[in-house]
Specification:
This protein has 139 residues and is α+β, with helices and mostly antiparallel strands. It has 3 helices and 6 strands, in the order E-E-E-H-E-E-H-H-E. Strand 1 and strand 2 form a beta hairpin. The protein is globular and about 50 Å long.
Length: 139
């Protein structure tokens, strides 16, 4: 894997992978940014959410469950001292499906968190505690 980061202006950065997909980073005005994009830590947390979401969706689809809507909210706590790492994450998974059962969603989350999600593993190995809950609506 190879990615590059280049300065656009101020503290606004453009990340690019080998397939020319871009990620934009910035920071708040207090730190010289223009608050025009997520911070690197916010993107890291979003990456965890995207990684586990892809796992869960894949597992549910393999079980032939219908997915009408899916979302995940990630609540992160950071250390007070530098480096201000993420110390705790709570993930709230929400699925709307007419044919999935709560146990289907819970098992998919367990597999993601215990086996498949590389980004979750990175956070856990850094000492971050990850907890989660699952919400199912048959709407």
């Amino acid at each position: 894997m190879k990615v590059t980061i280049r300065l656009e202006e101020g503290m606004r950065l453009i990340g690019e992978n080998s397939r020319q997909h871009q990620t934009i980073f910035d920071t708040i005005e207090d730190f010289g940014g223009s608050n025009s994009a997520p911070t690197p830590v916010e993107v890291a947390v979003q990456s965890l959410g995207a990684c586990t979401t892809m796992d869960v969706l894949s597992i549910l689809r393999k079980k032939r469950r219908t997915i009408n809507k899916f979302s995940i909210v990630l609540l992160a706590e950071r250390a007070n001292e530098h480096p201000k790492v993420i110390t705790n994450l709570h993930l709230i998974y929400s699925l709307v499906s007419p044919d999935a059962e709560l146990k289907d969603l819970q098992r998919a989350i367990e597999l993601s968190q215990e086996k498949y999600c590389s980004v979750s593993a990175i956070f856990k190995r850094s000492g971050c505690e990850i907890t989660w809950e699952a919400k199912l609506n048959s709407e």
